[in-house]
C-alpha cells in the first residue's frame, strides 16, 4: 500500500463527523496536505460556523501539533492579533490527532500570484511587510524562531469575520524554542553545526551554510519574501530547491556585486531595503535585532513613495485600509517573571472592564493571576 493510499484511510473524509468533548464538526473539504497530515475546513454542527482543523497522523514521529499548540499559547499570553488560537482538540483513535482553529483566508503567495503582474502594489507590499515583521517580533518575544519564513506561511483573515486586513502567521512545524526558561537562561548556546531547516528560496545564509539559526535569520528570510512580492520574483526563482549551492551563491553575490544587487532590488525601495539587509548582516547569533529600526525603514519607504495610511490592500481595493496600528516590541524573550507580571496586568485590565478597578488585595495577600483563579474554581 502506498503512503497516499494509507493517508486516504487514516485522514478525515468529506462529510465525516468529528467529535470533541465540546462539539461536533463536519468535514467540508481539504485545504492542504503535507507529510505530517492535512488541514481541512469543517463546519460546527451546533451553529454551522466554519473552522479549520489541522490533523496529524497518529503514527507521525514528529509531533507538529504540540509545537503549534505551544506557539499559539505563547501568542495568547501577549494578546497577539497575528496568530490563531487553539479552540478545541481531540483525536480519532489509531488514525489522527487534530486541533480546531479559526478559518482564515488565502495565503500571501496565492494573493500575489493571483495578480496580473504577480506582484503587490508598493502600498500593499509595505503594509504586509510591517504586519509580518510584527508577527515575527512577537514570536521571538515568546521564545521561538520560525525557521521557515515564506509567503505561504502568512495569510489574510476572512472577510466574513472582518479580519481580511489582518495578516496571520501559520505553520510552526519547524519552530525551535531558542531560550531555556527552565534553566533561567536567555538563549541556547550556538551549536557548532545544524541541519538545514527552511525553504531554499527564502532560507537565510546561516541555514544555507548549515549554521544554527537565530532571530536575525527570520528577519533575513522576511526580507527575501518582501522583495519577492514587491518586485514580482527573486533572481534565483527558476532554480530548484535542490540547487542549494547555486542559490547560496546568488545570495552571496547580491552582497558583493552591485549589478546583482540592482537586479535583486528591482522595483523595490532600494535605499531602505539595502539599509535593512546591511543591518541584518551586522548581527551575530546572540544579538537581539532592533525590530523598531527595520520597521522605521519600511515606514520611511511608505512616506517616500506617498503610501497613505488608509490606501486599500490589493485584495480589498474598495475599502480603506483598517489593519492593526502597531509597532514592534523589543523582542526580548518573556521570562517566567515577565509572564507573571503579564498575567497580573491582564487581570487588572479585566477588572477595569468589569468596573471593579480600585480594589486592591489585602495586605499580605498576593494579587490573583488567571492561573490562581483557575485553581480556585477547582
Number of β-strand runs: 10
Sheet bearing the most strands, described? 6 strands, antiparallel
Helix-strand makeup class: alpha+beta
> Any idea what the CATH superfamily of the largest domain is called?
Transferase(Phosphotransferase) domain 1
Kindly report the spatial arrangement of strands forming the biggest sheet. Answer: 1-2-3-4-6-5
Number of helices: 12
Order of helices and strands: HEEEEHEEHHEEEEHHHHHHHH
Report on this model:
This protein has 378 residues and is an alpha+beta fold. It has 3 domains: 16-41 and 50-102, Phosphorylase Kinase, domain 1, CATH 3.30.200.20; 108-304, Transferase(Phosphotransferase) domain 1 (Transferase(Phosphotransferase), domain 1), CATH 1.10.510.10; 336-372, no CATH class. Helices cover 37% and strands 13% of the residues. It has 12 helices and 10 strands. It has helices at residues 3-10, 64-77, 108-113, 122-141, 205-208, 215-231, 244-256, 258-264, 270-280, 291-304, 336-354, 370-377, and strands at 17-19, 24-33, 37-44, 50-57, 88-92, 96-102, 144-145, 154-156, 167-169, 176-177. It has a 6-stranded antiparallel sheet with strand order 1-2-3-4-6-5, with helices on one face. Strands 7-10 form a two-stranded antiparallel sheet. It has a two-stranded antiparallel ribbon with strand order 8-9. A hairpin with a 4-residue loop joins strand 1 and strand 2 (24-33). The model is unreliable at 356-378 (pLDDT under 50).
